[in-house]
Design a protein that fits this description.
By secondary structure, the protein is an alpha/beta fold. 46% of the residues lie in helices and 16% in strands. An eight-stranded parallel β-sheet has the order 1-2-3-4-5-6-9-10, with helices on both faces. A two-stranded antiparallel ribbon has the order 7-8.
Length: 351
């Protein structure tokens, strides 16, 4: 028998700001800014267009972001998007969140990266004040661009103001992480943590590069580590060299089950390796990736792995607590959430 998970506390480490806008907000920002390129003007039709359930590839999935980024080119739009992101996650009983975005994507009309980051942090701060949610920011540099060092430097200037980490995102195939070693160094020296997209659009070698060359502390997605394992009867029985490193070094995987299905990493949710990875001792976290493009919530993701993969209340509570534990935000806040919010709620649900 399944349990309704909506009212239980949750945490997210992998949530893209430009993938989580409200459809109505996209329409209103487009109207206010004179953006005339939206594929539809009716809210239902636009929501249907944004849904990338049939994209079948990472590259196809990413195409939908052109329009959300297109309406996020002013400080006012960025602050609103960030604020609403926090409000929506908090309404879904998310108590801890790290939101990521690419500052360079929002400079088309003259904003500096620093302006972009400042506006986004302001929106997150308003959301925190209104909801009490612990929320932090991650800066993405795009693998296929050449400005990653500049992104890392801009992000580093806000390392004590809510910016906690640096990421490499965008298409993996053809754009290996080690093209951006210098940016990762700059980010580390500025006091930022590193979480790198790897093992989503490319395989095990991409994961190895993120760990060996860029010193990633977490892996964005990382699910293609399953390719470095061997399974029998639905259980992992053998690990390759990289898989053993990921498991034994306790590298967290920022798993986004529905998004992974939409980008073609698994035929359907039942075929997703999240259960096998968890049972084999990998450090699994459950995340949304892009709520708009995948038409999901944090609660629906937890509900799906609960119902499809049989994760118990005890297991899910452990995942939420561990998700917060491997976050990059203030430790005193994280410890309080684990001890006073997450553990008691899931203990009661387990009973």
């Amino acid at each position: 028998m399944s349990t309704d998970l909506h009212g239980l506390p949750k945490a997210v480490l992998h949530e893209h700001l430009d993938g989580g806008l409200r459809v109505q907000t996209v329409l209103e920002l487009a109207d206010a800014d004179g953006y005339r390129s939206l594929p539809a003007e009716d809210p239902e039709a636009l929501a249907a267009w944004f849904h990338q359930g049939d994209s079948g590839s990472l590259e196809g999935y990413l195409d939908a972001f052109e329009h959300t980024v297109g309406v996020m080119q002013t400080q006012e739009a960025l602050e609103r998007a960030a604020y609403e992101n926090v409000v929506d996650l908090a309404a879904d009983h998310t108590v801890y969140a790290e939101i990521r975005f690419g500052p360079s994507l929002h400079t088309r009309r003259g904003l500096r990266r620093e302006d972009v980051i400042e506006a986004t942090l302001s929106g997150l701060a308003r959301g925190r004040a209104d909801t009490g949610m612990s929320v932090w920011l991650i800066a993405d540099a795009l693998r296929h661009e050449e400005d990653s060092v500049e992104v890392a430097r801009a992000a580093g200037r806000f390392a004590d103001q809510g910016m906690v980490a640096f990421d490499l995102s965008g298409p993996e195939a053809g754009y290996p992480a080690d093209l951006h070693v210098e940016a990762c160094r700059v980010a580390r020296e500025a006091g930022l943590a590193l979480t790198i997209h790897a093992g989503e659009g490319d395989g095990v070698h991409s994961i190895w590069l993120a760990l060996d060359r860029c010193y990633a502390q977490r892996l964005g997605h990382g699910v293609r580590i399953i390719e470095d394992t061997r399974s029998e009867a639905g259980r992992i029985v053998e690990l390759g060299t990289v898989a053993r490193q990921v498991r034994d070094w306790r590298i967290p995987l920022e798993v986004c089950p529905t998004s992974n299905v939409h980008t073609g990493l698994a035929q359907d949710l039942a075929a997703h390796p999240v259960r096998r990875l968890y049972d084999a001792g990998f450090r699994v976290t459950i995340n949304t990736d892009n709520r708009l493009m995948s038409d999901i919530t944090m609660s629906s993701e937890y509900q799906k792995v609960h119902e499809v993969h049989g994760f118990s209340m005890r297991e899910l509570g452990g995942i939420v607590a561990d998700t917060i534990a491997v976050g990059f935000g203030d430790w005193s806040e994280r410890k309080r959430l684990i001890d006073e919010v997450v553990n008691p709620a899931y203990a009661a649900a387990s009973d």
